[in-house]
Amino acid sequence: MNTLFTICNKEIINLKTNDTVQSVERAIELLYCFTAQTPELTLNDFVKRTGLNRTTVFRLLSSLMKKELISKNEGKNTYQLGLPFIHFGQIVSENLDLRRMALPVMNRLTEVSKETISLNIVQGAARICVEKIEGKEDIRQFIHLGIPYPLYKGASGKLLLAYSTEELIEEVIEGSGMTNDETKALKKDLIQIKDQGFAFSRNERITGAFAISTPILNSQHELMGGLSISGLSARLDNNKQLFIEAAIQSAEKLSAMMGYQKLGG
């Protein structure tokens, strides 16, 4: 029977599903009122569909309009979704496309390495694995799909953080509880990762495990995600360079498929 090398549950960021904000939930209810058949709604439409009173609906609409999530047609006195939703839709579409295009590349990388391959993205201030291919070895690393993991630990997280904005880096550091020395070490790691084009960790998040992660970039040179190889450290010694080169080549292929071109290329 196969033995799974299971990620320690305490590394998973806990999300409290009962911690909600009523005003946010009500604002989201308004957004869900829109459909393809009803792209424009009046104030009374929102009141009927949500059961909220007119004053509450008006205040919520005003807040959404300030953030441009909803716009108002003054001539018709109706409301519609704002332009930011075009951008949100593009993000979702690109991530779906990334998963679809990544699977054949990930399968080939598994055949070369025999190790577990994962596709990770940034969500909020965390790392999420959105696709994985299990390794071929009897003892292998098990990765959970859709579970938030820290960005400041391990190669998969640090790779994504290295290619993120300074604002996100500072947000992650602020919420990590790291000491000043740990913060300095992390920032030094992030610079090195971006300079060399890959991240490597061994016994960092999980004792006895290694990970190698490489960036996937789009046509705007923006980070789309990270491609990672992970497995047991004991199998790494004779294969480290091979794994690094294979991971870089695979991520470069995916980046090219997303429209990325090297500067000056």
Account of the 3D structure:
- The protein is of the alpha+beta class and 265 residues long.
- 44% of the residues lie in helices and 22% in strands.
- It has helices spanning 22-31, 43-50, 54-66, 84-113, 154-162, 166-176, 180-196, 240-257, and strands at 3-6, 70-73, 78-81, 116-123, 126-133, 139-142, 148-150, 199-202, 209-217, 223-232.
- The strands form 3 sheets. It has a 6-stranded antiparallel beta sheet, sandwiched between helices. Strands 1-6 form a two-stranded parallel ribbon.
- Keywords: DNA-binding, Transcription, Transcription regulation.
Summarize, please.
The protein is α+β, with helices and mostly antiparallel strands.
Key terms for this structure?
two-stranded parallel sheet; 8 helices; 265 residues; elongated; Beta-Lactamase; disordered N terminus; Arc Repressor Mutant, subunit A; DNA binding; 10 strands
Secondary structure elements and pairings:
Layout: E1 3-6, H1 22-31, H2 43-50, H3 54-66, E2 70-73, E3 78-81, H4 84-113, E4 116-123, E5 126-133, E6 139-142, E7 148-150, H5 154-162, H6 166-176, H7 180-196, E8 199-202, E9 209-217, E10 223-232, H8 240-257
Parallel strand pairs: 1-6
Antiparallel strand pairs: 2-3, 4-5, 4-10, 5-7, 8-9, 9-10
Keywords: DNA-binding, Transcription, Transcription regulation
Pfam families: HTH_IclR, IclR_C
Protein name: IclR family transcriptional regulator
